[in-house]
Write the structure tokens for this entry.
Amino acid sequence: MILVTGATGHLGTAVLHTLLQHTPAQRVAALVRDPAKAAAWQAQGVSLRVGNYSDPASLDQAMQGIEQVLLISGGGDDDGLQQHLNVIDAAKKAGVRTVAYTSRALQDPATLANKLMVRHFQTEDYLRASGLRYILFRNILYMDTLPVFTGPTVFDTGISLPAGPGRVAFALRQDMGEAIAKVLLQNTPGNRIYHFTGATAYSFADVAAALTEASGRPVAYHDVEPEVLASRMRERGVPEVAIQRTIGFMTDIKHGQESMVSPDLATALGRQPTSLLEGVKQLYQL
């Protein structure tokens, strides 16, 4: 049986959707905090396991009868790393055979500006040391983040970000979820690492050009200083922690951290991942 954590989130939903297309629901379990939010999965025959990353006792119970666990990385909680370690500990205690983890595809973890990303590689190290069989899904920055980064007025004001000419091999979360599910279903022995990225790395100037083509409205990219972005975000009432994380993302993009391009996603999907142009049409409803 495969246990998907974070099962009501966007990535978990995409994984479960594909799993249920290719394997009986009786082979699938979902870890959820609120079972009411997963009623649709339960109606399809998915086994609901109620718990959360911060509650080891609930994790111990959730792992019973599980062979593979997909640990979908948590958010930005201060104890986020410990939450990941709790899941790995519970899996080992319950005799789970394989733990898969959704990590990040970054060029050089040692030089990251966005320190929140470091916990991904600390989780990887802990999982390797656990003795469990592991699968690492190193995912590129979701294309789905583009509307957040470009802002709600993008078609009026263009894109103003401190990313310079930095490039990102954006991929849709839906494509990643589908690929993750297909890999899990292969149940191949041995430890594996996948780098899930788009087929091409794009700058924010390329994003602006795609938005222009898709909408028929001119969108320009303006490379601004980090403090300009920070000031504008403060004016909108954005919390300081979110401002600093956004600037961290942009700094890492500028330095090439997100520019990795790998064929792994296309191979797992059995097709090319969604292009930037098609992706922005979906994300911006164009």
Notes: The mean pLDDT is 96. The CA atoms of residues 124 and 190 lie 16 Å apart. The longest strand covers residues 98-104.
